[in-house]
Amino acid sequence: MWSKRESVDYALQRRRTLATLLGPVRSLATAQACDADPLLVRAALHHGELSPTRCPVGDCGRLVHLNYVFGDQLGQYSGRIKSSHELDDMENDFGEFKVYVVEVCPECGWNHLIKSYVLGDGKKRRPPRRQPTVEDIYG
Prior knowledge:
The chain is of the alpha+beta class. Helix content is 29%, strand content 29%. The protein is built from 5 helices and 6 strands; from the N terminus they run βαααβββαββα. Strands 1, 2, 3, 4, 5 and 6 form a 6-stranded antiparallel beta sheet that branches. A hairpin with a 6-residue loop joins strand 5 and strand 6. The relative contact order is 0.22.
């Protein structure tokens, strides 16, 4: 990703959450930390990319990363999940959009925002024309 900029890493917030969950002074319950929305878990199962790290909360399994994209130039495609390969193609087609990477454990429900960054070639573009969706056609 040649145009990656304005990168923010949320590792300190993640460490703090894990310290309050697993540390000697447990001020956070597991149910509060592992509260992934069912739609987020479903998205992780079907659209996520497998992470090399294991779930930090329990002996659940591997984490999954989801890349959410947002931006005015994306039009109706803003707020969707994209794979890393799709992001490589998108950075040449759009001027600027923001990517949020969320890690999710589909088994226990752990989820945390791990990083965000901006992609795009920097050229201002109009959003693509709105394409009719299934909801538009069938109500």
